[in-house]
Amino acid sequence: MTEYVVPGPSARGGDGSVGVGMTGQTAKIESRCGRCEGTQVRQVNQFIDRGQLWWDAEVYCESCGAYLCEHAGPGRAPEDVRSALLAEHGPSRLCVVGPRPSLVSVLKVLREVSEVSLPRARELADELTDTGLVGTLVEMEFLKIQLRSRGVAAEVRPDAGPAGEPIPS
Q1: CB-CB contact of 116 with 167 (8 Å)
Q2: pTM for this model (two decimals)
Q3: Is 19 exposed, middle or buried (0-12, 13-18, 19+ CB in 10 A)?
Q4: 137 vs 141: CA distance, rounded Å
Q5: Cβ atoms of residues 81 and 56 within 8 Å
Q6: Percentage of residues in the chain with pLDDT exceeding 70?
Q7: Please, are residues 82 and 4 in contact by the beta-carbon 8 Å criterion?
Q8: Element (DSSP H or E) covering residue 116
Q9: Are 81 and 139 in contact (CB under 8 A)?
Q10: Each residue of 68-124: pLDDT tens digit?
């Protein structure tokens, strides 16, 4: 079973500033508006901003004009947001390229970004250097930036493997 890596809100650094080439994903979910019974759209986004992983969500009704900003800021995206992004865009896989990296560097990044215990970080490090880690494109790009800042060469590519469950934090 493939597990998704879910970076936490406390990771910092890297070159994830807003601008040209910014990594981000959007998904839209339609439902019935509670006010007018028209079509309501919930748009969810995940992106890298100022070296942090961010997400936001807004709900708007095309019929009555109702609008709600549900969330906008840094932090771990909730599972319903991640699920919508994965359903819309599919998972991405982060793999180490080149020579086997320093275990200390990889563990440090995984513990900071994923907010997991040392034994769990060791399991993830083994998976990263073996088959790679799987998550949303933005999550994997964020991890790649953090790894590269510690001298670990990595690349992100679309994942054709089976979907898995997120890593508990």
Answers
A1: yes
A2: 0.79
A3: exposed
A4: 6
A5: no
A6: 81
A7: yes
A8: none
A9: no
A10: 999 889 988 999 999 999 999 999 999 999 888 889 999 999 999 888 999 999 999
